[in-house]
Design goal:
Helix content is 46%, strand content 11%. By secondary structure, the chain is α/β, with parallel strands linked by helices.
């Protein structure tokens, strides 16, 4: 039987988000699995079938469930998973629309999971399917809370090529220095944790970006008791690497959030980063107005409008890209962004004009005005333009009560 459902307690959906979550569960309820494996997919129809077969085979005899959280725009990945689920009753499928990002997908999967232990791995075939069983055995009869599959225990090779390898190594170094995580590979996408640890950190997870291990390991007042297992990445069976400059910017923003104890949320860091480009646009427009001898108030107003437009475009593609506005939603979103930032613009205009009137240099007056409006603009944008991003861990949606049974023959 297939059940479709949306949890009414989801913070994004409660605010009118475009996100839609479908949890497809096969069969009826049964005993709690020993381990729940979450696999997040984005256009990985070529690889996911083999991954599911291999993981299921390697967990034979272990009470388990495999939850695939699919953010693909088309149905190809979901069709493959649904086909496997008809043959393997341990497989569940969650489809998300209007959402994106591995971190929020992982949280959605773990929220839906029933296992005593929670795991995650990629759906592109690069993670050895034997890892989950190996890490599960390593955690047995210990007080370990987290076991991580690391590429860097025995070698500096990441399995990536070119600039992606450099980005990965830079992320590892930055994470260690800023957060003091004793992990050889904090960028790892394959790890296993106890449910108790997840439930403790869940309220503090940011759900931003793709590097969920950092979020999980650094969201508690103490660091988890951790072990690491060496691994190497296998050849990708399908899909494409998600590691790019935007992912690294997400990581940097997440590190700021964790380093400040949540005082500066990751999205705010990204918003402020975008704001620096808006500041450049603002000052450039203001400088051009000076060249044509326009009154300061007119140049400042034009600079504000230009900066707001630039900031909307960049925030839509970076800060809120997991809730990106597309097609017909862009123009209404831009208008909402203007309206939401109106008070910030008034603050900026008043501060800038006031400082200029008392003799402050035009550049200083314009810059101070822009900065004073930035905090208001962030909160207004989050609540009005990209409403689904309002609240912690966007799109982390619990599954309906009915759940897939444990694989036949597998019992705790």
């Amino acid at each position: 039987m297939i059940t479709d459902g949306i949890d009414s307690h989801d913070p994004g959906l409660a605010r009118g988000s475009a996100s839609i979550v479908r949890d497809v569960a096969w069969g009826g309820a049964s005993a709690r699995p020993r381990v729940s494996v979450v696999i997040c997919t984005l256009d990985e129809h070529e690889a996911i079938g083999g991954v599911l077969d291999d993981v299921g085979a390697n967990l034979a005899g272990v009470a388990h469930e495999i939850i695939v959280v699919d953010d693909s725009a088309d149905d190809r990945t979901a069709d493959v998973v649904a086909g496997r689920a008809r043959r393997n009753r341990a497989i569940r499928l969650i489809r998300r629309q209007g959402a994106g990002g591995l971190a929020s997908a992982a949280i959605a999967g773990w929220d839906a999971a029933r296992g005593q232990t929670l795991a995650i791995m990629d759906g592109d075939g690069q993670h050895d399917p034997r890892l989950i069983g190996q890490m599960l055995r390593r955690m047995e009869n210990t007080d370990l809370e987290l076991v991580v599959a690391s590429r860097y225990l025995a070698s500096a090779e990441s399995g990536l090529r070119g600039y992606r390898h450099l980005l990965s190594r830079a992320g590892v170094g930055l994470t260690g220095r800023l957060l003091g995580l004793r992990l050889a590979d904090p960028m790892s996408g394959c790890f296993l944790m106890r449910r108790d640890w997840y439930e403790d950190v869940r309220p503090r997870l940011s759900g931003v970006g793709f590097k969920i291990l950092v979020d999980v390991a650094a969201s508690h007042h103490r660091r988890p008791r951790t072990a690491q297992t060496p691994t190497v990445l296998l050849a990708r069976a399908g899909g494409e690497s998600k590691l790019d400059l935007r992912v690294m910017l997400d990581l940097a923003a997440l590190l700021v959030e964790k380093r400040t104890g949540g005082a500066v949320p990751a999205r705010m860091s990204l918003f402020m980063l975008v704001g620096t480009t808006g500041l450049a646009t603002h000052l450039t427009t203001l400088a051009l107005s000076r060249l044509i001898d326009a009154p300061f108030w007119l140049g400042q107003g034009a600079a504000i409008l230009a900066a707001m437009t630039t900031n909307f475009a960049l925030n839509n593609s970076l800060t809120f890209r997991d809730h990106r506005l597309r097609g017909r939603a862009v123009l209404p979103g831009l208008l909402k962004f203007y309206v939401g930032c109106l008070a910030g613009a008034l603050v900026s205009e008043a501060a800038g004009a006031g400082l200029n009137a008392v003799g402050a240099p035009w550049a200083l007056a314009g810059a101070v005005g822009a900065v004073l409006g930035a905090a208001w603009n962030y909160h207004a944008a989050r609540r009005l333009t990209w409403r689904a991003a309002h609240g912690p861990a966007p799109d982390a949606v619990a599954a309906p009560a009915q759940a897939a049974p444990i694989a036949e023959g597998a019992r705790p």
